[in-house]
Design a protein that fits this description.
The protein is built from three helices and five strands. It has 112 residues and is an alpha+beta fold. It has one domain. It holds the Pfam family XdhC_CoxI.
Length: 112
């Protein structure tokens, strides 16, 4: 399995998504749509995920990527997009690592 450490971090996740889809991979795109407080990535940041769990990009600098990747697997399988919200006031905050504060909303959709 590929992972972010093996890919060029300077490459645009949208271009990588396009390459992956051209090679036949099922792909989901996670996009930061809103942030509050100390969220580490701005709105418009992207994380691309394939059905095998390979990923490129970032929506939170590592705070919620694991949870987003898990949700993306279901989005790829079902074809149904979803809006995810994480934050220090949310019961998942400590599980996903946003203990530094802030909130983040991430839209996950299947591409192709």
């Amino acid at each position: 399995m590929e992972n972010a450490a093996h890919l060029d971090a300077s490459r645009d996740p949208l271009l990588i998504a396009e390459e992956w889809m051209k090679s036949g991979r099922d792909v989901a795109l996670a996009t930061v749509v809103e942030t509050w407080g100390s969220a580490p990535r701005p709105a418009g940041s992207h994380l691309v995920i394939d059905a095998e769990g390979n990923f490129q990009g970032s929506v939170s600098g590592g705070c919620v990527e694991g949870a987003v990747i898990a949700e993306a697997a279901d989005v790829i399988e079902s074809g149904r997009p979803r809006m995810l919200e994480f934050g220090v006031a949310d019961e998942t905050a400590w599980r996903v690592g946003l203990s530094c504060g802030g909130r983040i909303r991430v839209y996950v959709e299947r591409l192709g």
